[in-house]
Each structure stands twice: as structure tokens, then as C-alpha cells.
Specification:
Elements lengths: L2 H9 L3 H23 L2 H17 L10 H18 L6
Helix pairs in contact: 1-2, 2-3, 2-4, 3-4
């Protein structure tokens, strides 16, 4: 499915589009995050945060390139934040 169509459907709240994005990119994003964090569980948490942020803010987010590129950058940024922040108790 072309990214432009995925983004259109996502903006309309189409849960199938969200599911498609999640299933298509999740494993790659987890591997990418794990290269930065070296922690599989934290990597999954970061990826979940990035993908769910996309869903929650789907109407405001401007994706001008590709969904994968957007998510890779989001995961990279979130991973770097986790590295730079001191550990916080939850």
C-alpha cells in the first residue's frame, strides 16, 4: 500500500491502517532501537511509544516523506532521549 493512502486512512482513524503500519514496521523498528539501546524490552517500549504517538496525533502530524522514515526518526530520537536521561522510577 502506498504511503500516501496509508496516511490518508490513518488520519481518518482507520484502525486497519494503524494495524498495517504496526505489523509492517514493528520488527524493523525494534531491531533499530535495540542497536541504540542494547535492551530488547526497552526497545519494544520505545517502538510502542512511537507508533502509538503516531496514532494519537494522526491528525496533526505532517508526514512528507514516508511512514517508515518518520517512525525511524521518532524511534531514534526516543532512544537517544532514553540514553541521555537519568533512570527514573515509574
Amino acid at each position: 500500500m502506498k504511503d500516501i493512502l496509508i496516511i490518508e486512512h490513518l488520519r481518518r482513524g482507520d484502525e486497519e491502517a494503524f494495524k498495517y503500519i504496526y505489523e509492517r514496521h514493528y520488527v524493523l523498528l525494534c531491531r533499530f532501537a535495540n542497536q541504540i539501546l542494547n535492551d530488547a524490552a526497552l526497545s519494544e517500549e520505545v517502538v510502542d511509544d512511537a507508533i502509538f504517538y503516531l496514532w494519537e496525533h494522526r491528525r496533526e502530524i505532517e508526514i512528507t516523506y514516508s511512514v517508515r522514515a518518520y517512525l525511524m526518526r521518532a524511534v531514534r530520537n526516543l532512544s537517544l532521549i532514553h540514553i541521555s536521561e537519568p533512570t527514573r522510577p515509574y
